[in-house]
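In the previous lecture we treated proteins in isolation. Real proteins rarely work alone, and many bind small molecules. This record shows how such a complex is specified: first the sequence, then the SMILES for fe (ii) ion.
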Amino acid sequence: MTKAGWTLDDIAWERFDPSKVDQNILMAVKAASVVEYNAPDYVGYLKAVFPDDAALHQTFEQWGREETQHGDALARWVKLADPTFDFEKTFAAFRAGYQPPHFDGADGSVRGSPRGELIARCVVESGTTSYYSALRDATVEPVLKQIVSHIAGDEMRHWKLFYDLQQAQPELSFWRKLKIAAGRLGEAEDDELAYAYYCANTPIERIGIDPYDRKACAKAYETRLLRVWRPQHLQRAIGMVAIAIGMKPRSWVARGAAKLIWTAVKFKNRHAMKAEARAANRGGVPLARAA
Ligand SMILES: [Fe+2]
Ligand SMILES: [Fe+2]
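The predicted 3D structure, ligand included, written as tokens:
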């Protein structure tokens, strides 16, 4: 795993090779840069969940700085791959159109308890670890490979951070934890990723004019992620979520869930690619132009 505490100066930017940029990966990375850069809002929310713990606030702030740096590094790479990409304007458009209700003067966790909140964070960090590991293994562009290797290492450390923190909180029943984890997984298709994808892959002057179709954008983003996902990445994510809710990562339930999800992923992926090919034949779908 890569070391903690890396900076943008550790990246060998001069090794960038435009001939090795994959357009599908580029579209996904554009959206990811926006979501990562939005971390300060989550820091504020997490502080409100643990209002009286100054040491924890510092921990959250450091975590937020690392997430923001992920956004910074990805945006800088995107700028090399697509010099027309205006990150500042894209990010401003995303901020103007997306604000989860629980960030608005939040008081307490939307997961019902501080431990529930930390479990939900573990689920997110499991997903990001899996996602950036998949990108690292899939991309042949050397600069992106180096960036996402660093990020995957950070996400794994973040998972461990939230896992350790949740151990210090009052225990919840297994079913309660399972429900929280399943609920957070279900939010993967909510507005945040879909709207980030829309803003990052629509020309700035067309944002707000070209219709935003949440379902289509969520699907387009998901399709780009699934193309690089392999069974080992899924297995890792399932194992990390299983540990977070107190299950054995290699238990038959976890292995069975991984098999089932992988079958669904393959099916969904095939279906989504066919749908995109059909749409392309009809003249192209918005937001899949560069595919
Ligand atoms: Fe991140
Ligand atoms: Fe993270």
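Summary for your notes: The chain has one domain: 20-281. The chain has eleven helices and no strands.
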